[in-house]
Amino acid sequence: MWGASRLAHVASRTVLSRYERREELNLASDPDGLHHFEYTIHSQNGEDGIIAEIFRRLEPEHRVFVEIGASDGAENCTANLVAQGWSGIWIEGDHKKVEAARIRTTGRPVDVVEAFVDRESIVPILQASSTPDELDLLVIDIDGNDYWIWEEVATRYTPRVVVIEYNAVVGPRLQWTMPYNPTHQWNDTAWHAAGLAALERLGRRLGYVLVGCDSLGVNAFFVLRSDADRFSTASVRDLWVPPRYSLPYGHPVRRFTDFDVPPLPEGSGGGITLRASHPRPKTVRPGQIFYFDVMLTNETDDTFACSGRHPVQLAYWWIDEHGHRLIDEPIRCHQLWRSSPRTSCNLLCRVQAPREAGTYSLGIGLVQEGVRWLSECDITSGEWTVASSSP
User: Fold this and answer.
1) What is the CA radius of gyration of the chain?
2) What CATH number corresponds to the domain at position 74?
3) In this structure, are 190 and 48 located in the same domain?
């Protein structure tokens, strides 16, 4: 039996092979596309080259940047600009990384601010750092509330260019955004940031146009609408890049370490709680694919994950109005995740609605492959309507 990581990898390669063919055609047909200009000096995914090309076309006015989530300054989106004489602000919440960044920027016009930002604090932090009203560049990479921080920054500042991390896992169409959580810290899952469609809609509302993504499916690049005529523009679907980083699900920085999960003891499921956060309204089209958020809380003494010979996986099943399951074997929601004792993690799951119109309930549970169903933690998420036409 294949583990979840192997299955996810195979599914990811299928998507990527289709994408690679499409990307070859796109690159050949659009010589001005930003992918042509990628290179890395201090960035992680070719952003140095894309940013350089953007400002070759726009000509920066002030050569000033803000990067939120700047890490230790050795590898980020603006370290190369610092080397070219730009000034700006780096904001980072990790004390050790802040100290390293300050050492690296000694004698340089960079204000390194130690802060864990949220919607209430971000604008006061920027104002305290004497940030000019109109920046050349804003970079947001905080592995969670990126969407909400951009929305808040825009109430006071209008950068000409915005580089923001997006969640490539959710695809090019889904208007998905991680619900705002001021204490969020990334937990090695796909629970972070926002899908490209949601960011594009936010950018449009704020006066920006999406002009590209890096070729690894990590960052999206926006420019002010007044500057968009200098770039090739296309639909979100055409500009979206799938997750081409080292993992098919999750985030490109930390690698998921595969390990053997021993069989969980009988009754251990009683120490695991699943809590669902379903979309509103709960009316869907026949066969519609949507994403369902589940928080898993592990109050046991065991560490388990979707890895090894006996991976623990989230699964779902539909129940009709007579209480009958539509299928005998629940559908697995393959993704990479790990749960340590007395911690919680968010899982983002892909669900497909029944193909026949009607009223259904959605069951959610855990299975340890080759061992048993952890039926003690099964839950049912209310009543769903599958409409015969678009809801």
Assistant:
1) 22
2) 3.40.50.150
3) yes
